[in-house]
């Protein structure tokens, strides 16, 4: 049973190791599901009609033509779900309040790094799904791509320490597992860090950084230094001399991965 301290954190808007009561405001202004990424997820879900979405947040990547049961422990994020989506169940990945095989598929996008017990969460996803388990995450070993590590190494180091290794997810799922690299489109509407690979100016916006939980784990001085250095290099052309080719690169092969586990 969840202890009182953990429950109070969730009531205050926390989820896993990030406090979305503090950083979740305005999240949906920056984190909208990207159509290109969504196609990878829909393909992996196949013909599943009933889906449980773990760590559902404000509803990104929930299919609107299926019966979706969202699960989200953060009150702040549950409050930002649009009216056309189902209300989220207040629960955590490690203890799902559903019977075995309740759903055709289970989905988790940008959430496994928030869980307190990865193995338990993966086992629960497998338990409640009779079909595919679909997980969108980032490979921590590939987070050093692009320009962002040059300007915010502390934030990248935090992300690399939080995201579980892809091999751990594969092992935790069991069965037949496929790991699919997901290219990030230039005008990606889901504003995780690499989404701005060709639009560096966007990350000068404090709201854009706040919508990436890694920034909440570094000292405020890191953000101040980041804005000063990036702003200067954009103004004098240094960034464009080093990375300007990214402004017109249609896709970025970064750390984004889709892990699809099937039983058997």
Structural description of this entry:
- There is one protein chain.
- The chain has 264 residues and is α/β, with parallel strands linked by helices.
- The protein has a single domain, classed as 3-Layer(aba) Sandwich (Rossmann fold), CATH 3.40.50.
- Helix content is 35%, strand content 16%.
- α6 (118-128) packs across α9 (166-173).
- Residues 1-15 have low confidence and may be disordered.
- Residues 54-128 form the Methyltransferase type domain.
- This is Methyltransferase type 11 domain-containing protein.
- It holds the Pfam family Methyltransf_11.
- One of its GO terms (molecular function) is S-adenosylmethionine-dependent methyltransferase activity.
What general outline do the C-alpha atoms trace? globular
Within the CATH hierarchy, at the fold level, what is the topology?
Rossmann fold
SSE arrangement, N to C: HEEHHHEEHEHEHHHEEHHHEE
- What value does the Rg take, in angstroms? 18 Å
Mean pLDDT: 90
Indicate the proportion of strand residues.
Answer: 15-25%
Number of domains: 1
SSE topology sketch:
Blueprint: H1 4-11, E1 14-15, E2 18-19, H2 20-23, H3 27-30, H4 35-45, E3 50-54, E4 67-71, H5 75-79, E5 105-109, H6 118-128, E6 133-138, H7 148-151, H8 153-162, H9 166-173, E7 176-181, E8 184-185, H10 206-210, H11 220-236, H12 238-243, E9 251-252, E10 256-262
Parallel strand pairs: 3-4, 3-5, 5-6
Antiparallel strand pairs: 1-2, 6-10, 7-10, 8-9
Helix pairs in contact: 6-9
